[in-house]
Amino acid sequence: MGCEKKEPCLSSQTCSGQSVTATIPPAPGTCPACEDYASRQRIKHVAVMCCEGSCLRGEIARQASNILCHTIMPGDTVRICLGGAFTKDTGQRGLVRDAERLIAVEGCFLKCATRMMQGVIDGLEPEVVVADGLIEFDTTLFGVDEMPEYEIRAHAVNVAEQLAARLTAQPGQCCAGSAPLACS
After folding, report:
1. How far is it, in rounded angstroms, from Cα 85 to Cα 83?
2. How far apart are CA 128 and CA 11, in angstroms?
3. DSSP result, 72-113
4. What is the enclosing helix (H) or strand (E) of 38?
5. What is the pLDDT of residues 52-61, one digit of tens each?
6. Which DSSP letter does residue 48 get?
7. Do 45 and 100 touch, CB atoms closer than 8 A?
8. CATH architecture of the domain with residue range 33-167
9. Which residue has the higher pLDDT, 9 or 113?
10. Strand partners of residue 118
11. pLDDT band, residue 22 (cuts 50/70/90)
12. Any idea where the domains of the chain sit in the sequence?
């Protein structure tokens, strides 16, 4: 059984379409290094938030986002700390809110990073790219321990290179020529 959009919910899952409300305790303070980073990164035109899931798809999305932002396009992109952006209204959330272009690199069709941030920023509509729709792999695999690290890295590089190519296109064209489920 793979992680496919068409699979029905299991009886133990909540698939009613109802919103979930979470109470997040206030942070005990702010991280000066994070705030300094966010301040320095405000000049970049593209903010990249991504799935931080610990499954194989999330790991590929996470690595692809890091490769894109820190290796391929470091002068144009800023990598968002999803936890910081989601849990407190400080620099990271400001980067998401104020980005000229916001890309959400999701591991799968569930689009957790997008849905999380939409819960704290009204009207947020990032360009969503679903990493597992951009690559071919055994979709029955779930855990990061089920694929060799070098294969995960190769898939992440592939996704990052495709993202870089799309970022050079005009906004709103992230999905041109994408495989099914690749973009929203």
Report:
1. 6
2. 29
3. ISTTTEEE--HHHHHH-SSHHHHHHHH-SEEEEEESSTT-HH
4. helix 32-41
5. 888 999 999 9
6. E
7. yes
8. 3-Layer(aba) Sandwich (3.40)
9. 113
10. none
11. confident
12. 33-167
Distance from the first to the final alpha carbon of the chain: 23
Tokens of 65: 């986002």
103 contacts 46 by C-beta, under 8 angstroms? yes
Between CA 8 and CA 27 the distance in angstroms is 37
Scan for tokens 């992440």, then name that residue: 156
Q: Which residues pair with 49 in a beta bridge?
A: 104
Rounded to 5 degrees, φ, ψ at 175 are -100, 0
The b/e string for 66-93 (b: 16+ C-beta within 10 A; e otherwise) is bbbbeebbeebbbbbbbebbbbbebbbb
Q: How far apart are CA 27 and CA 44, in angstroms?
A: 27
Rounded to whole angstroms, the Cα distance separating 111 from 150 reads 25
What is the token pair recorded at 184? 């929203």
Burial of residue 57 (CB within 10 Å: 0-12, 13-18, 19+) is buried
Contact call for residues 60 and 68 (beta carbons, < 8 A): no
Which amino acid appears at position 167 of this protein?
A: L
In this predicted model, what pLDDT tens digit does every residue of 123-166 receive, in sequence order?
999 999 999 999 999 999 999 999 999 999 999 999 999 999 99
Cross-strand bridge partners of residue 106: 130
Q: Which two tokens stand for residue 110?
A: 């569930």
Is pTM beyond 0.90? Reply is no
